[in-house]
Amino acid sequence: MLHWFLNMARVMRKEFRLVFSSPGTMIFFFALPLAYPIVYAAIYNPEVTRDMPVAVVDRCRTAESREFVRHADATQAMKICGYAADMAEARRWWEEKKCFAVIEIPADYSARVARGEQGVIQFYSDASLLLRYRTFLQSLTELQMATDADLREIAINTLGVSGMASAGGSSIQTEAYFLGDPQQGFASFIMPGIVVLILQQSMILGITFLGGASNERRRLNRGLDPLAVQASPLVTVLGKACCYVILYIPLSIYILHYIPVWFHFPHLGNPLEYILFIFPMLLATAMLGLTCTCMVAEKESAFVVVVFTSVVFLFLSGLTWPRYAMPPFWQWLGDIIPATWGMEGFIRINNNGATLSQQIVPYAWLWCLTAVYTLTAWLVACLRARVSLSALGAVKSN
């Protein structure tokens, strides 16, 4: 047993040397997870667009239309940049990027409102940035509800108590509380899941890069890797996996704890609980990466594997499309990806304040994937060891 652990320590020490002696692997293991979260968070900040310039084409020119424009300017999203004489002038402002939206008030707006009819105001928005369009839409909805409430109040005051029933109105006030994303920002929504995927993809990229380098050395040395430690397949797999997990524990603390704190993302969970939760995901990812080394013939092949799978893994995680709406095949494919369960559990713990005991299902799935990918990584190591023994026997016979 002591000899077994000593061999595993030798494998782990050798893997540490290979990692720190390879500039490419250090970029994938350290530079990528350290820089990517900051770059993504900086791109998506500020999360909420404010005071976007809006042009007004007021064909009504009444007190009611001017009041509506003042209320629009008071919203969080819109800032009235000026009155255009007609839509042609407003379109020129739009093309010159002086405004991102246009409010067109028809000439009969005040007359229709005075008659108790529905007043129609046209709003044209630049939809090239969905974050901007969504903010416009939300502010317009709130402005419409506030204007409707004011008109109902005027109608009640005019008709008196007897006219309250015909005037209608809402007797219930509603308030929205957005759990897990109080700012309703895009970064707060997507970053907690993206950082987990960064952990998985950067680790797989580094492991497959090392595996490709080992395969290159084997081709140059008649099937033998001169830098490999002579140990059993299971010892080799466990020693390498321990090396990768040890390297990624501090990186996980940096990504999962400090990035949300620095950029003011939702951060309600207990750090100890989501670090314990992410541990089996790191272990499963390490075993998955060791399994994928059989698919890379050289170091450059690692880029093809990871770049091809990154977008697929993002969609299968349910971050951009709910998993329950996917066909059964895609749900099953997402189930075998460690980051899928890592995202689900981490978002619930970090954003919604869940505990580790409440996330027992994704936690159990991560341990099951760890066991499955340990078996597949061991099979790959056994195959590689058999090839090495055959090559060694051929060398000795020669």
User: In percent, how much strand structure appears in the residues?
Assistant: 5-15%
Distance between the termini: 36 Å
| Regions with little confidence, pLDDT below 50 for 5+ residues | 162-169
Order of helices and strands: HHEHEHEHEHHHHHHHHH
**What's the average pLDDT?**
84
Total of domains: 2
Oligomeric state of this protein:
single chain
Question: How many strand elements?
Answer: 4
For the structure shown, list the relevant keywords.
67% helix; four-stranded mixed β-sheet; 398 residues; mainly alpha; abc type-2 transporter like fold; 4 strands
What does it look like?
With 398 residues, the chain is mainly α. The protein has two domains: 2-44 and 188-391, no CATH class; 52-167, abc type-2 transporter like fold. It contains 14 helices and four strands. Strands 2-1-3-4 form a four-stranded mixed β-sheet, sandwiched between helices. α1 packs across α9, α2 runs parallel beside α9 (233-262) and α10 packs antiparallel against α13 (338-352). Mean pLDDT is 84; it is low at 162-169.
How would you summarize the topology of this molecule?
Blueprint: H1 2-21, H2 23-44, E1 52-58, H3 63-73, E2 78-83, H4 87-95, E3 101-105, H5 109-114, E4 122-125, H6 130-159, H7 164-167, H8 186-220, H9 233-262, H10 271-292, H11 301-316, H12 328-335, H13 338-352, H14 360-397
Parallel strand pairs: 1-2, 1-3
Antiparallel strand pairs: 3-4
Helix pairs in contact: 1-9, 2-8, 2-9, 8-9, 8-10, 8-11, 8-13, 9-10, 9-14, 10-13, 10-14, 13-14
